[in-house]
Design brief:
three-stranded antiparallel sheet; single chain; HU Protein, Chain A; 105 residues; alpha+beta
Length: 105
Amino acid sequence: MRKADLVATISEKTGIAKVDVLVSLETFFKEVKSTLSEGENVYVRGFGSFIIKKRAKKIGRNIKKNIAIEIPEHFIPAFKPAKVFIDDVKSKVKALPDDNSEKEG
């Protein structure tokens, strides 16, 4: 599902104009980005948490030049789904079509 599909679905289910739904979604995304960039996490009860994860300093390798490079400590955004969210998805999602567990080898 793309953002346009999400906007259309929400608009159909709520009766709110697509443009208003789009503005609301864009504002939500902007606020989450802004809050995370300030170093603060965003918690949505029953859905999940948008959090900042710390990545430690490490040594990487530039394959083209075959030299070691130091990757400094940095922070990345991440999403951690709520337990209710995880349980709901687990109970409703069937095996994906590209699941290799059913193939005989």
